[in-house]
Amino acid sequence: MATKLGKQTYQPDNPPFIISTGTVAGPFEGQGPLKDYFDHVYTDTLAGERSFENAEKEMMANACFTCLQKVNVTPQEVDFYLAGDLLNQIISAGFCALELNIPFLGIYGACSTSAEGLALAAMLVDGGFAKLVLASTSSHNSSAERQYRYPTEYGVHRKPTAQWTVTGAGAALVAGYGAGPRITTFTVGKVVDQGIKDPMNLGAAMAPAAAATMVQHFADTGRGPEYYDLIVTGDLGKFGRELAVITCASKGGFDLSKNYNDCGLMIYDTEKQDVHAGASGCASSALVVYGYLYRKMLAGELKKILLVATGALHSVTSFQQGASIPAIAHAVSIEME
Amino acid sequence: MSRDPKKKPLTVEQKRYTELVSELVPKPQYGKNALLAFLFGGLVCVIGQLFTDIYRLAFGMSSTEAGNPAVATMILVGSLLTGLGLFDKIARYAGAGLVVPVTGFANSVVASALEFKREGLVFGVGSKMFMLAGSVITFGVVTAFIIGLIYAIFIL
Amino acid sequence: MEWQTYLLAFIIGGAICVVAQLILDFTNLSPGHVLSGLVVAGGVLGGLGLYDKLVQLAGAGATMPISSFGNALVKGAIMEAEKNGVIGVLTGMFELTSTGITAAIIFGFLTAVVFNPKG
Question: How far apart are the CA of A51 and the nearest CA of chain C, in angstroms?
Fold first, then answer.
């Protein structure tokens, strides 16, 4: 069982292990600086499928099977499959679960789904409900674009705050035994709405949620930012990152300037790749953490990281009806012994 | 307090934050965007003028008559650029310069039709085609109807 | 085919696009809002008889931008209204804009059949 720290943070008594991860990326992500850390890079955004939605499901399934194969685990051995994505009714996750044939719990936290999945997997494993839990998430630039914004071929000027949805998928296998980085604490966030209405500026909408969860995490655990080798938020982008630093300083007095970065700024070469403010999408944090940071931890280059995945919980309908954009962030601390 | 989300007032904290955001977030490059829109928009219109003159001279039409095939030709060009996946790439720079001329109207129709092709010819292509262009037609017709009515009742 | 026509087409056409671009950049309005607004503006100018003057001056500089669609709708409605009164507003509405709409539907349909979205 777990110990509750403060108000929103939990510490598993027997911290579960992330024994394997699987990451697949689209061609554009495969041109970015982290390309060598992904298990598979597709040469075609359709991934050989008929539609972008099918391609996203194929990527999610590929990430899951890759993750399982690396540690020779069959889907039959896995107790739960937790997954979510950005598409309406989380169809990528549902259709992928059909292929995996593992008992499935669908989750939705928009782009915070990676951390939500890890936190829930840790709960299931530490609570004794499961030995092996597979958590995955995906996003696809073209399927997200048509759902949230415009048809992909529609000619629009993108604003400097616009972000680029990552094409790819990431999966992590969480177990009560084994070796690898361990989920030592997790902080479940509250939904925050700071009145931002511009869906082309999601970083600004999500930054207060990230800051609130980080401040709460530090207060609950008694740790400061310096405890971690690296703190990463999911997909705040260039301006969201700055806003998170400012808000963390003003709300909690924490200095994030030294060891804090944003996955949305790590996955692309923001100088050469035309992505405006950076990356967004569920796969942004999944690819960076499960691909790049996980390997850095296995190699011993990073010991303690804090993943703060952020999600914007609006829909096209809520935006068109004039509602501002609510956001959430969940924090998961991952440590290597 | 109003339940309409559009009218919901911002709290003091929300107001402070939105002010911080507007200070921090860079403004679009107004001058550069306007210049590009001017150059591309002007260029599209010059090409349109060229087609008008070609039809006028080749088929002996009046300038007004030649306007129709010229518009149709520009729509064809906009459609082809969209189908080839080039329109959105040019429009990233050209902005309104490519969107405001009739090429943009063609793009909004073709992009929608193309995007929803996988949902079938009826529900996808057929019904989604005017997803974006529909409002242009609706507001145009409503305006023209009101003006036409005023004209028919009061001026005639 | 005089060069002045081309110069004016360039300047007036470009200027209409600049107005739209500035509205897009200075406000949070979507392209859909701005284009609808331009059509309404074109219609109102057409109703006042001003848009045709602009067309005479700038040629394609005024007929290519979407505002000319509003003007053409109004002109069609008024032309038929002169013959058939109120009923003419209904019958004449699409008289002059038929080319644009038909071309967009036909080319849109054919493009969708031939091409696939590139993403």
Answer: 9
Percent of chain B exceeding pLDDT 90 equals: 87
Question: Which CATH number covers residue A101?
Answer: 3.40.47.40
Q: Which chains share 3+ C-beta pairs under 8 angstroms with C?
A: A, B
pLDDT tens profile B26-52: 888 999 999 999 999 999 999 999 999
**pLDDT, tens digit, for every residue of C6-53?**
999 999 999 999 999 999 999 889 999 999 999 999 999 999 999 999
- Examine the domain organization and report whether A213 and A260 are in the same domain: yes
Question: Are β-strands A2-5 and A9-12 bridged in parallel, bridged antiparallel, or unpaired?
Answer: antiparallel
A212 and A158 housed in the same domain: no
Between chains, do A153 and B116 touch, taking CB under 8 Å as contact? no
Indicate whether A120 and A237 sit together in one domain: no
| Chain C residues touching B85 at Cβ < 8 A | 115, 117-118
Range of the domain at A79: 2-175
Contacts of C43 in chain B (CB under 8 A): 140, 143-144, 147
Q: Which chains touch A (3 or more CB pairs under 8 A)?
A: B, C
Residue at which a domain ends, from A175, A201, A233: A175
The per-residue pLDDT for range A289-329, each reduced to its tens digit, is 999 999 999 999 999 999 999 999 999 999 999 999 999 99
- A141 touches C: beta carbon within 8 Å: yes
